[in-house]
Write a structure and sequence with these properties.
Length: 136
């Protein structure tokens, strides 16, 4: 079928806003989405968000992962990794699990990285465990 949506690796739908398209409103996508046009509104993405070099988002974004090569202005909450390509222009408050930034990417705002799977161990606890192990 010519107009059938593509499937991503996880089996969810893959959506696309093509270059030249302007969309105003909120978007909820259970799977991946690629933005090459301009979206003014909030996005909730169950999979990966890809903003192409010609793509632009003005609003709040929640996603599992994000790869940004275009412009994003607003607030980003990304659970996994956020990748800013060299053509990215991000003006946002970013809360992400991990951040990768290529040389040339522009980022203005705040960034909070929270690795929810690891916890810090105080240095004195580590030293005490070493002393116990060497005494045994």
């Amino acid at each position: 079928m010519m107009n059938s949506p593509r499937r991503n690796e996880a089996g969810g739908e893959h959506n696309r806003i093509v270059e030249g398209t302007q969309l105003q409103g909120n978007i909820h996508s259970p799977g991946d989405i690629r933005i090459d046009g301009h979206v003014k509104g909030n996005l909730s993405v169950g999979g990966k968000l890809v903003v192409g070099p010609s793509g632009a988002i003005d609003g709040e974004v929640r996603a599992q992962e994000a790869s940004i090569a275009g412009r994003v202005i607003g607030k980003l909450e990304i659970k996994g990794i956020t990748t800013l390509a060299q053509t990215a222009n991000v003006q946002a408050d970013l809360n992400t699990g991990k951040l990768a930034v290529e040389t040339g990417a522009q980022f203005t705002g705040t960034c909070t990285m929270a690795n929810r799977k690891t916890t810090a161990t105080p240095a004195d606890t580590v030293a005490a465990k070493k002393d116990e192990a060497s005494a045994a």
